[in-house]
């Protein structure tokens, strides 16, 4: 089956044409309203969500209705947060990883663990939601590069960085080498600036409000190919305002989506609003998943470049 992530515009064009029906004379298709166009696009181009809070899988008796987590129908991949309280540290994170992996394995009809962009595409082609492990809390790294390597070996693909110091500089370089995505959500502007200056791979902000970031930070993010993933609220106009600012300052390649606070409503109202604001189809495909996937793919490529070649 063709990779849905490799040729987004073709798939969208087909979905859009199909949604118009075949009752109109050739050459005179019925015009589509923005809501219909938004639903057609999202049906073909599922969203990569930057932040999903897993259910309380470590509880002795988790609520069956939380397994797996409630999601919007348009979500095709999700970063599952592994953040824990500061007191839980490395051990708490390991327990959370173990519990999440067990949950994914117990829900094969819904979920599939993904370590690469190729596995993300395969999960979608199989009708499953791709689960990416991370981000891990910066406190759970414990000031140890060995911990970063261990997390990567366990399948983690993103780590938060919330303060910058000498160890952070070494950690960013090690994450680039391993292929771990650097998540700067929650970091102060100076930390974002310093991390962007060091990282050779694109960074993510898996959950961030564009209005909380200075203009120059958004400009730097766009220049380095990073992606700011914005939470989607039921107020489509307010969310669209934030995305308009992000696109203007960082560029369309830096726009992504974190999650929706109303899964039953989904992403269609936001995409319909953006269509009314003259966002082009290719920019909406990039917003849904193209930009996040590109950042992940470039991170994978950078990691492969670090590997020694066989003699």
Describe it for me?
With 311 residues, the protein is α/β, with parallel strands linked by helices. Helices cover 45% and strands 13% of the residues. The chain contains eleven helices and nine strands. Helix 9 crosses helix 10 (268-276). The longest helix has 26 residues, at 281-306. The protein is globular.
Low-confidence residue ranges: 1-23
Strand order of the largest sheet: 1-2-4-3
Number of helices: 11
Q: Radius of gyration from the CA trace?
A: 20 Å
Order of helices and strands: HHEEHEHEHEHEHEHEHEHH
User: What fraction, in percent, of the residue positions are helical?
Assistant: 40-55%
How are the secondary structure elements laid out?
Layout: H1 8-19, H2 34-44, E1 47-52, E2 75-80, H3 89-106, E3 111-113, H4 117-125, E4 129-133, H5 145-153, E5 158-160, H6 166-178, E6 181-183, H7 189-198, E7 204-205, H8 215-223, E8 227-232, H9 236-250, E9 255-260, H10 268-276, H11 281-306
Parallel strand pairs: 1-2, 2-4, 3-4, 5-6, 7-8, 8-9
Helix pairs in contact: 1-2, 2-10, 5-6, 9-10
List keywords for this structure.
about 300 residues; three-stranded parallel β-sheet; about 45% helix; globular
Q: Can you describe this structure in just a few lines?
A:
This protein has 311 residues and is an alpha/beta fold. Helices cover 45% and strands 13% of the residues.
């Amino acid at each position: 089956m063709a990779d849905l992530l490799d040729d987004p515009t073709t798939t969208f064009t087909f979905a859009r044409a199909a949604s118009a029906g075949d009752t109109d004379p050739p050459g005179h298709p019925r015009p589509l309203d923005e809501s219909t166009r938004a639903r057609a696009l999202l049906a073909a181009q599922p969203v990569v969500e930057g932040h999903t809070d897993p259910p309380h899988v470590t509880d002795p008796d988790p609520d069956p209705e939380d397994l797996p987590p409630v999601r919007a129908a348009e979500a095709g991949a999700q970063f599952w947060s592994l953040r824990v309280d500061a007191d839980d540290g490395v051990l708490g994170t390991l327990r959370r990883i173990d519990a999440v992996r067990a949950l994914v394995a117990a829900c094969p009809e819904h979920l599939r663990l993904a370590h690469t962009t190729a596995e993300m595409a395969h999960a979608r082609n199989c009708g499953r939601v791709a689960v990416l492990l991370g981000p891990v809390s910066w406190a759970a790294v414990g000031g140890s590069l060995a911990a970063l390597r261990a997390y990567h070996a366990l399948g983690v693909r993103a780590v938060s960085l919330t303060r910058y110091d000498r160890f952070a500089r070494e950690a960013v370089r090690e994450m680039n080498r391993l292929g771990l995505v650097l998540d700067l959500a929650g970091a102060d502007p100076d930390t974002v600036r310093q991390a962007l200056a060091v990282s050779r791979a694109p960074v993510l902000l898996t959950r961030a409000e564009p209005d909380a970031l200075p203009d120059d930070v958004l400009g730097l993010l766009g220049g380095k190919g990073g992606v700011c993933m914005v939470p989607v609220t039921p107020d489509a106009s307010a969310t669209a305002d934030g995305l308009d600012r992000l696109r203007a300052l960082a560029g369309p390649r830096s726009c992504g989506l974190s999650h929706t606070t109303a899964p039953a409503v989904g992403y269609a109202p936001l995409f319909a609003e953006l269509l009314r604001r003259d966002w082009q189809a290719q920019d909406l495909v990039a917003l849904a998943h193209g930009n996040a996937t590109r950042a992940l793919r470039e991170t994978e490529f950078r990691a492969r470049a670090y590997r020694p070649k066989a003699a």
